[in-house]
Amino acid sequence: MESKNAVCYVVSGNYTKQLSVSLLSLVKSYLSDVALDVYVFNEQVAAEDLLVLEKLPAMVGKPQIHVKSHSLVELPAELIGKVKEHVNPLYLQRLFLPGVLRDYDRVLYLDNDTLLYESVDQLFQQLPVTSEQLIAAVRDFYMYVFGSTTAVMPIYGVADVRNYVNAGVVLFNVARYNATYSRSQLEQLIAANLEMPWLDQSLLNKLTADRVHYLDLAYNFQKTDAWLQDWALPTETTAAKEIAQARRMVKIRHLVDDASWDHMVAYNQFEVDTFQLLAEVKQLSHVIYQQANLEAHH
């Protein structure tokens, strides 16, 4: 069956290991027979790494998933120079993905530091193509909790900071988004909003304000148990209690504040899952590498 949905990652060479873990979690949790295209927008990624990413789905029995390498969206050099003073230009790539992949109904952007525990086809169903909403996303946990307790200026692109979304998991309604913003408009808006804090994320909030479908918090679980227990829940806010409820059935773990790559002890199951998946990627990559070498010598 033809895929009308796609998943996208954006990666530079330094984060290919994290991407491979997220990709394998996506592949192993995918339960649909419907074809799914996964695009890896990349720079400075080794050819053998891209080969492994492309072959992973078939290696674990999911040939309906097709991983495709794609070059980054090329932005004007002058704009890149200005952006570099504020944020890594790579982070802004997500804003342009629907314009590149306009043949799809929905495009799901995922940060490289995500773990998927539910078949992603369930997430696509959360945003009907007939919806007037531009994106579906999850509220940023910190803003959601502490926006309820402090007065915050509307400098983050939304009138109510509690509705500020995290940009690590974003489902785009492709046709609606492209009808609202052209590539040139996006470039102009970036240049006009360089002073926004967390430019890439805050600008996405500004662009889609009042046209967001807010997903269940479990679709982008962003914080550690320590943050939840020691910082959020003591506020006694409704938001903190909602986050605690979502913790019981995490669908996508977004390892925003993860330090598991820096220490040996695994403090939670997410860390265990991360390195079990990485070990599996290493094992599969060894097989793929050996096969490629054999083919090259025959």
Instruction: Tell me the β content.
Output: 15-25%
Give a count of the beta strands, DSSP E runs of length 2 or more: 9
- Summed up, the helix count is 12
Overall radius of gyration: 19 Å
SS-based class:
alpha/beta
Q: Widest sheet: strand order? A: 3-2-1-4-7-6-8
Shape: globular
Gap between N and C termini, in Å? 35 Å
What is the mean predicted local confidence, pLDDT?
94
The largest pleated sheet is described as: 7 strands, mixed
Q: What is the N-to-C succession of helices and strands?
A: EHEHEHHEEHEHEHHHEHHEH
- Low confidence ranges: none
Helical proportion, percent range: 40-55%
Characterize the structure shown.
The chain is of the alpha/beta class and 298 residues long. The chain is 40% helix and 17% strand. Strands 3-2-1-4-7-6-8 form a seven-stranded mixed beta sheet, with helices on both faces. Strand 2, helix 2 and strand 3 (65-71) form a beta-alpha-beta unit.
Structure, briefly:
With 298 residues, the chain is of the alpha/beta class. The chain contains twelve helices and nine strands. Helix content is 40%, strand content 17%.
